[in-house]
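Duplicate of #3305? Posting structure anyway:
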């Protein structure tokens, strides 16, 4: 379904280009907004405009965002690192760099494409566009992820995530030396008011977010920590750590200028790994916990830091 948004330009935001203004108010890239303008989905005071139009106070901006085109879901023989599987669910160890589900720009080569090849009757479970998926991990985050093989199992697992009864443990290598040995980060977050592609505490719609952390090892310019998210907000761990001025090493979005290096060590990926996932099995009602070993590329960086 298309979505229509209407904005009234304030004196403070007047005289900006229309594409710049909308990029600050919508979770879309400037390129996407320029495409909407070119395809006549944006009007100012009921009139069509160009991307370089400069706004005036009290201008009425109307944007019609077309509904997403259905992405064809094609099974693909992509290797899966399966940690556990039975007739009801499976747990996989997702590598860093693998997109979880198809989206514009990533219609092939995703975890969902691999799952559809591995599980022949997965389509439609939990939703047409994200079959079987109960939760997700960012593209550059590695680690354990659970997949449901039936709708009842999907509902059961989704409820556990919603009630925050799922036990999750992440390992992260972060920038700087964290002085406090352990603690709780209680910081509501949401879509950033100025940069709609980011999540932050500077938001008009804050959502409750809590993260527990514990220092595992300190290095000269970095810290290895354990993270246990009590809630599961988008980018929660990355935003919370950035707020403490200890962003995850390798984080392009929240890591600042030094995201790609720790001292003389180059960081080729986001140093964040979902190590453990524990939950109640929807059929047996028994608690089960699976662990995904630390990836080799993360271990290599940690080994170098140990030798410094």
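Output from current build:
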């Amino acid at each position: 379904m298309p979505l229509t948004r209407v904005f009234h330009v304030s004196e403070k935001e007047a005289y900006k280009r229309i594409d710049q203004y909308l990029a600050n108010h919508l979770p879309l890239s400037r390129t996407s907004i320029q495409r909407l303008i070119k395809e006549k989905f944006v009007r100012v005071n009921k009139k069509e405009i160009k991307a370089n139009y400069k706004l005036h106070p009290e201008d009425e901006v109307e944007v019609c965002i077309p509904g997403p085109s259905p992405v064809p879901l094609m099974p693909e023989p992509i290797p899966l690192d399966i940690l556990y599987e039975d007739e009801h669910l499976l747990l996989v160890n997702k590598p860093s760099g693998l997109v979880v589900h198809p989206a514009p720009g990533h219609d092939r080569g995703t975890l969902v494409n691999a799952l559809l090849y591995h599980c022949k009757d997965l389509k439609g479970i939990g939703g047409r566009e994200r079959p079987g998926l109960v939760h997700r991990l960012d593209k550059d985050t590695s680690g354990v992820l659970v997949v449901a093989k039936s709708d009842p199992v999907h509902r059961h697992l989704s409820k556990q995530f919603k009630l925050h009864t799922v036990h999750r443990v992440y390992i992260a290598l972060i920038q700087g030396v964290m002085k406090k040995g352990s603690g709780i980060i209680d910081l509501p977050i949401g879509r950033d008011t100025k940069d709609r592609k980011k999540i932050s505490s500077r938001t008009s719609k804050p959502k409750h977010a809590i993260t527990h952390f514990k220092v595992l090892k300190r290095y000269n310019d970095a810290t290895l920590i354990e993270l246990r998210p009590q809630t599961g907000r988008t980018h929660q761990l990355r935003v919370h750590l950035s707020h403490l001025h200890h962003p995850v090493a390798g984080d392009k979005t929240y890591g600042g200028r030094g995201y790609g290096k720790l001292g003389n060590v180059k960081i080729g990926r986001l140093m964040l790994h979902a190590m453990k996932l524990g939950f109640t099995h929807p059929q047996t009602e028994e608690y089960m916990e699976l662990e995904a070993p630390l990836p080799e590329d993360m271990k290599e960086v940690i080994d170098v830091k140990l030798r410094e």
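Confirmed duplicate; merging threads. The chain has a mean pLDDT of 91. The helical segments are 18-25, 30-38, 111-118, 151-162, 236-243, 296-307.
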